[in-house]
Amino acid sequence: MWEWVSDQVFKMVWLNDLAGRLLEFFGISLDSKLGSSLQFFIFDTIKIFILLSVLIFTMGIIQSFFPPEKTKVILGGIKGWKGNILGALLGTVTPFCSCSSIPIFIGFTTAGLPLGVTFSFLISSPMVDIASIILLMSFFGVKIAILYVIVGLFFAVIGGTIIDKLGMENEIQDYIRKMEDAATFVEELTWKDRFRFGIEQVKEVAGKVWPYVLIGVGIGAVIHNWIPESFIQTVLGKDNPFAVVLATVIGAPIYADIFGVLPIAEALFSKGVPIGTLVSFMMSVTTLSLPSLIMLSKVVKPKLLALFIGICMVGILLIGFAFNLLPI
Protein backbone atom coordinates (compact mmCIF):
# COMPACT_ATOMS: atom_id res chain seq x y z
CA MET A 1 0.00 0.00 0.00
CA TRP A 2 2.78 2.42 0.93
CA GLU A 3 4.61 1.68 -2.32
CA TRP A 4 1.45 2.48 -4.26
CA VAL A 5 0.99 5.75 -2.33
CA SER A 6 4.64 6.66 -2.91
CA ASP A 7 4.43 5.96 -6.65
CA GLN A 8 1.01 7.41 -7.41
CA VAL A 9 0.71 10.28 -4.91
CA PHE A 10 4.24 11.52 -4.31
CA LYS A 11 6.08 10.44 -7.45
CA MET A 12 2.94 10.78 -9.63
CA VAL A 13 3.78 7.90 -11.95
CA TRP A 14 0.29 8.26 -13.44
CA LEU A 15 1.15 11.78 -14.59
CA ASN A 16 4.35 10.58 -16.28
CA ASP A 17 2.36 7.90 -18.12
CA LEU A 18 -0.25 10.48 -19.12
CA ALA A 19 2.44 12.81 -20.51
CA GLY A 20 3.87 9.89 -22.49
CA ARG A 21 0.50 8.94 -23.97
CA LEU A 22 -0.12 12.57 -24.92
CA LEU A 23 3.15 12.74 -26.85
CA GLU A 24 2.49 9.42 -28.56
CA PHE A 25 -0.95 10.72 -29.56
CA PHE A 26 0.81 13.49 -31.50
CA GLY A 27 3.17 10.97 -33.09
CA ILE A 28 6.26 11.73 -30.99
CA SER A 29 8.24 8.62 -30.10
CA LEU A 30 9.23 8.31 -26.45
CA ASP A 31 12.30 6.36 -27.52
CA SER A 32 13.77 9.42 -29.22
CA LYS A 33 15.80 12.01 -27.31
CA LEU A 34 13.29 14.70 -28.22
CA GLY A 35 10.31 12.63 -27.05
CA SER A 36 12.02 11.62 -23.81
CA SER A 37 13.06 15.22 -23.12
CA LEU A 38 9.54 16.51 -23.76
CA GLN A 39 8.06 13.85 -21.48
CA PHE A 40 10.51 14.80 -18.73
CA PHE A 41 9.75 18.51 -19.16
CA ILE A 42 5.96 18.17 -19.26
CA PHE A 43 5.83 15.68 -16.39
CA ASP A 44 8.22 17.48 -14.02
CA THR A 45 6.77 20.93 -14.72
CA ILE A 46 3.17 19.88 -14.03
CA LYS A 47 4.19 17.75 -11.02
CA ILE A 48 6.19 20.56 -9.43
CA PHE A 49 3.41 23.12 -9.87
CA ILE A 50 0.82 20.72 -8.44
CA LEU A 51 3.04 20.05 -5.43
CA LEU A 52 4.01 23.72 -5.19
CA SER A 53 0.39 24.87 -5.03
CA VAL A 54 -0.71 22.27 -2.49
CA LEU A 55 2.37 22.63 -0.29
CA ILE A 56 2.53 26.43 -0.28
CA PHE A 57 -1.18 26.65 0.49
CA THR A 58 -0.71 24.27 3.43
CA MET A 59 2.45 26.07 4.55
CA GLY A 60 0.65 29.40 4.29
CA ILE A 61 -2.02 28.24 6.71
CA ILE A 62 0.65 26.95 9.12
CA GLN A 63 2.64 30.16 8.72
CA SER A 64 -0.45 32.22 9.59
CA PHE A 65 -0.13 30.87 13.12
CA PHE A 66 3.48 32.12 13.33
CA PRO A 67 3.67 35.74 12.09
CA PRO A 68 7.04 37.44 12.70
CA GLU A 69 5.69 39.32 15.73
CA LYS A 70 4.55 36.15 17.46
CA THR A 71 7.73 34.34 16.45
CA LYS A 72 9.83 37.07 18.09
CA VAL A 73 7.95 36.53 21.34
CA ILE A 74 8.42 32.75 21.16
CA LEU A 75 12.14 32.96 20.39
CA GLY A 76 12.80 35.82 22.80
CA GLY A 77 12.09 33.70 25.85
CA ILE A 78 14.46 30.84 24.99
CA LYS A 79 18.25 31.05 24.81
CA GLY A 80 21.18 28.70 24.26
CA TRP A 81 20.97 25.51 22.23
CA LYS A 82 17.24 25.23 22.93
CA GLY A 83 16.77 28.60 21.25
CA ASN A 84 18.85 27.45 18.29
CA ILE A 85 16.72 24.33 17.91
CA LEU A 86 13.53 26.38 18.06
CA GLY A 87 14.94 28.92 15.59
CA ALA A 88 15.79 26.12 13.14
CA LEU A 89 12.35 24.55 13.54
CA LEU A 90 10.56 27.86 13.01
CA GLY A 91 12.64 28.31 9.86
CA THR A 92 10.75 25.36 8.39
CA VAL A 93 7.47 27.32 8.27
CA THR A 94 8.86 30.49 6.68
CA PRO A 95 9.65 31.56 3.08
CA PHE A 96 11.24 29.08 0.68
CA CYS A 97 13.87 31.50 -0.61
CA SER A 98 16.96 32.76 1.25
CA CYS A 99 16.39 36.33 0.03
CA SER A 100 12.88 36.30 1.51
CA SER A 101 14.26 35.10 4.85
CA ILE A 102 16.70 37.99 5.30
CA PRO A 103 14.05 40.69 6.04
CA ILE A 104 12.67 38.42 8.78
CA PHE A 105 16.25 37.90 10.00
CA ILE A 106 16.62 41.70 10.25
CA GLY A 107 13.38 41.89 12.26
CA PHE A 108 14.62 39.25 14.68
CA THR A 109 17.95 41.07 15.06
CA THR A 110 16.35 44.43 15.81
CA ALA A 111 14.11 42.68 18.35
CA GLY A 112 17.25 41.73 20.26
CA LEU A 113 17.09 37.98 19.73
CA PRO A 114 20.37 36.08 20.28
CA LEU A 115 22.57 36.09 17.21
CA GLY A 116 22.94 32.31 17.20
CA VAL A 117 19.17 31.82 17.18
CA THR A 118 18.71 34.21 14.26
CA PHE A 119 21.41 32.43 12.24
CA SER A 120 19.92 29.01 12.98
CA PHE A 121 16.71 30.44 11.52
CA LEU A 122 18.56 31.95 8.53
CA ILE A 123 20.24 28.64 7.65
CA SER A 124 17.14 26.51 8.14
CA SER A 125 14.60 28.72 6.39
CA PRO A 126 15.71 28.29 2.76
CA MET A 127 17.31 24.88 3.20
CA VAL A 128 14.71 22.90 5.13
CA ASP A 129 10.95 23.32 5.22
CA ILE A 130 7.93 21.12 5.47
CA ALA A 131 7.64 21.27 1.69
CA SER A 132 11.16 19.85 1.35
CA ILE A 133 10.28 16.45 2.74
CA ILE A 134 7.27 16.06 0.42
CA LEU A 135 9.20 17.25 -2.62
CA LEU A 136 12.19 15.07 -1.85
CA MET A 137 9.91 12.09 -1.30
CA SER A 138 8.39 12.68 -4.73
CA PHE A 139 11.83 12.60 -6.37
CA PHE A 140 14.08 10.39 -4.24
CA GLY A 141 11.93 8.44 -1.80
CA VAL A 142 11.20 8.56 1.93
CA LYS A 143 14.62 7.58 3.33
CA ILE A 144 16.58 10.29 1.53
CA ALA A 145 13.91 12.92 2.26
CA ILE A 146 13.93 12.26 6.00
CA LEU A 147 17.74 12.15 6.14
CA TYR A 148 18.00 15.45 4.27
CA VAL A 149 15.61 17.23 6.65
CA ILE A 150 17.21 15.82 9.81
CA VAL A 151 20.74 16.68 8.66
CA GLY A 152 19.62 20.13 7.48
CA LEU A 153 18.11 20.97 10.87
CA PHE A 154 21.18 19.62 12.67
CA PHE A 155 23.39 21.75 10.43
CA ALA A 156 21.29 24.88 11.19
CA VAL A 157 21.49 24.27 14.96
CA ILE A 158 25.26 23.63 14.93
CA GLY A 159 25.93 26.66 12.70
CA GLY A 160 23.89 28.96 14.94
CA THR A 161 25.54 27.56 18.07
CA ILE A 162 29.06 28.21 16.73
CA ILE A 163 28.18 31.80 15.83
CA ASP A 164 26.56 32.31 19.23
CA LYS A 165 29.63 30.98 21.13
CA LEU A 166 31.98 33.29 19.22
CA GLY A 167 30.10 36.36 20.49
CA MET A 168 29.96 38.38 17.28
CA GLU A 169 27.08 40.70 18.12
CA ASN A 170 29.25 43.70 17.18
CA GLU A 171 29.56 42.33 13.63
CA ILE A 172 25.99 43.37 12.78
CA GLN A 173 25.91 46.53 10.65
CA ASP A 174 25.55 49.63 12.84
CA TYR A 175 22.35 50.87 11.21
CA ILE A 176 20.66 47.53 11.91
CA ARG A 177 21.67 47.65 15.57
CA LYS A 178 20.26 51.18 15.88
CA MET A 179 16.91 50.26 14.32
CA GLU A 180 14.03 50.13 16.76
CA ASP A 181 11.85 47.08 16.90
CA ALA A 182 8.44 48.01 15.54
CA ALA A 183 6.21 45.91 17.76
CA THR A 184 2.74 45.60 16.29
CA PHE A 185 -0.52 44.14 17.48
CA VAL A 186 -1.14 40.71 16.03
CA GLU A 187 -4.76 40.31 15.02
CA GLU A 188 -6.29 36.88 15.57
CA LEU A 189 -7.19 35.42 12.21
CA THR A 190 -10.28 33.44 11.36
CA TRP A 191 -10.02 30.24 9.33
CA LYS A 192 -11.39 32.16 6.37
CA ASP A 193 -8.51 34.64 6.75
CA ARG A 194 -6.02 31.79 7.00
CA PHE A 195 -7.32 30.14 3.80
CA ARG A 196 -7.18 33.50 2.04
CA PHE A 197 -3.60 33.96 3.26
CA GLY A 198 -2.71 30.49 1.95
CA ILE A 199 -4.10 31.33 -1.48
CA GLU A 200 -2.22 34.64 -1.53
CA GLN A 201 0.99 32.80 -0.64
CA VAL A 202 0.49 30.42 -3.56
CA LYS A 203 0.04 33.34 -5.95
CA GLU A 204 3.02 35.25 -4.54
CA VAL A 205 5.51 32.36 -4.37
CA ALA A 206 4.41 30.80 -7.67
CA GLY A 207 4.70 34.21 -9.31
CA LYS A 208 8.30 34.49 -8.14
CA VAL A 209 9.58 30.97 -8.72
CA TRP A 210 7.96 29.87 -11.98
CA PRO A 211 10.86 31.06 -14.20
CA TYR A 212 13.35 29.16 -12.04
CA VAL A 213 11.17 26.05 -12.12
CA LEU A 214 11.02 26.11 -15.92
CA ILE A 215 14.77 26.76 -16.18
CA GLY A 216 15.50 23.98 -13.69
CA VAL A 217 13.24 21.49 -15.46
CA GLY A 218 14.73 22.49 -18.82
CA ILE A 219 18.28 21.94 -17.56
CA GLY A 220 17.16 18.65 -16.04
CA ALA A 221 15.68 17.51 -19.37
CA VAL A 222 18.92 18.33 -21.18
CA ILE A 223 21.02 16.48 -18.58
CA HIS A 224 18.61 13.55 -18.56
CA ASN A 225 18.59 12.94 -22.30
CA TRP A 226 21.36 14.81 -24.09
CA ILE A 227 24.48 14.77 -21.89
CA PRO A 228 26.30 11.41 -21.92
CA GLU A 229 26.33 9.51 -18.66
CA SER A 230 30.08 8.96 -19.00
CA PHE A 231 30.68 12.73 -18.91
CA ILE A 232 28.49 13.21 -15.82
CA GLN A 233 30.26 10.31 -14.12
CA THR A 234 33.67 11.79 -14.90
CA VAL A 235 32.75 15.19 -13.45
CA LEU A 236 30.43 14.32 -10.54
CA GLY A 237 30.63 10.53 -10.26
CA LYS A 238 31.79 8.51 -7.25
CA ASP A 239 35.24 8.01 -8.78
CA ASN A 240 35.97 11.75 -8.67
CA PRO A 241 37.22 12.56 -5.13
CA PHE A 242 36.51 16.26 -5.70
CA ALA A 243 32.90 15.78 -6.88
CA VAL A 244 31.35 17.03 -3.63
CA VAL A 245 33.58 20.12 -3.62
CA LEU A 246 32.80 20.80 -7.26
CA ALA A 247 29.04 20.41 -6.73
CA THR A 248 29.16 22.82 -3.78
CA VAL A 249 31.14 25.44 -5.72
CA ILE A 250 28.88 25.10 -8.78
CA GLY A 251 25.73 25.44 -6.67
CA ALA A 252 26.72 28.59 -4.77
CA PRO A 253 26.32 31.18 -7.60
CA ILE A 254 22.96 29.76 -8.67
CA TYR A 255 19.85 31.54 -7.42
CA ALA A 256 17.00 29.09 -7.00
CA ASP A 257 14.89 27.43 -4.35
CA ILE A 258 14.06 23.80 -3.69
CA PHE A 259 11.47 23.83 -6.50
CA GLY A 260 13.96 24.89 -9.14
CA VAL A 261 16.93 22.78 -8.06
CA LEU A 262 15.20 19.42 -7.62
CA PRO A 263 14.64 18.69 -11.36
CA ILE A 264 18.37 19.18 -11.95
CA ALA A 265 19.23 16.94 -9.00
CA GLU A 266 16.77 14.31 -10.25
CA ALA A 267 18.38 14.25 -13.70
CA LEU A 268 21.87 14.00 -12.20
CA PHE A 269 20.70 11.19 -9.91
CA SER A 270 19.42 9.26 -12.92
CA LYS A 271 22.93 9.54 -14.41
CA GLY A 272 24.47 7.89 -11.36
CA VAL A 273 25.63 10.94 -9.38
CA PRO A 274 25.91 9.91 -5.68
CA ILE A 275 23.28 11.23 -3.31
CA GLY A 276 25.84 13.04 -1.12
CA THR A 277 27.09 15.04 -4.08
CA LEU A 278 23.49 15.98 -4.91
CA VAL A 279 22.74 16.96 -1.30
CA SER A 280 25.78 19.27 -1.29
CA PHE A 281 24.63 20.80 -4.57
CA MET A 282 21.07 21.39 -3.29
CA MET A 283 22.21 22.82 0.05
CA SER A 284 24.72 25.10 -1.66
CA VAL A 285 22.09 26.48 -4.04
CA THR A 286 19.48 27.10 -1.34
CA THR A 287 21.83 28.47 1.34
CA LEU A 288 24.76 30.17 -0.42
CA SER A 289 23.17 31.73 -3.50
CA LEU A 290 25.02 34.85 -4.61
CA PRO A 291 22.01 37.24 -4.44
CA SER A 292 21.23 36.22 -0.84
CA LEU A 293 24.87 36.71 0.19
CA ILE A 294 24.86 40.17 -1.38
CA MET A 295 21.73 41.03 0.62
CA LEU A 296 23.25 39.58 3.79
CA SER A 297 26.41 41.68 3.29
CA LYS A 298 24.22 44.78 3.77
CA VAL A 299 23.15 43.46 7.18
CA VAL A 300 26.32 41.96 8.69
CA LYS A 301 29.96 43.03 8.58
CA PRO A 302 32.57 41.19 6.46
CA LYS A 303 33.98 39.17 9.37
CA LEU A 304 30.60 37.67 10.28
CA LEU A 305 29.67 37.17 6.62
CA ALA A 306 32.92 35.29 6.02
CA LEU A 307 32.29 33.15 9.12
CA PHE A 308 28.75 32.35 7.95
CA ILE A 309 30.00 31.35 4.48
CA GLY A 310 32.82 29.31 5.99
CA ILE A 311 30.54 27.42 8.39
CA CYS A 312 28.06 26.70 5.60
CA MET A 313 30.75 25.55 3.15
CA VAL A 314 32.42 23.23 5.67
CA GLY A 315 29.09 21.87 6.88
CA ILE A 316 27.80 21.24 3.34
CA LEU A 317 31.03 19.48 2.35
CA LEU A 318 31.01 17.26 5.46
CA ILE A 319 27.35 16.36 4.91
CA GLY A 320 28.01 15.57 1.25
CA PHE A 321 30.95 13.27 2.01
CA ALA A 322 29.02 11.59 4.85
CA PHE A 323 25.96 10.95 2.64
CA ASN A 324 28.18 9.41 -0.03
CA LEU A 325 29.39 6.86 2.52
CA LEU A 326 25.87 5.76 3.40
CA PRO A 327 24.55 2.57 1.78
CA ILE A 328 21.60 4.33 0.11
Automatic annotation (TrEMBL):
Keywords annotated in UniProt: Cell membrane, Membrane, Transmembrane, Transmembrane helix
Positions in coiled-coil regions: none
Predominant location: membrane
Lineage: superkingdom: Bacteria
GO CC annotations on file: plasma membrane
UniProt KW Membrane keyword: yes
Membrane topology label: Multi-pass membrane protein
InterPro entries in alphabetical order: DUF318, UPF0718_permease
Listed transmembrane segments: 40-62, 112-137, 144-163, 209-228, 240-265, 277-297, 304-326
Pfam family, one: ArsP_1
Subcellular location: Cell membrane
Keyword Transport applies: no
Family: Belongs to the UPF0718 family.
Protein name per its UniProtKB record: Permease
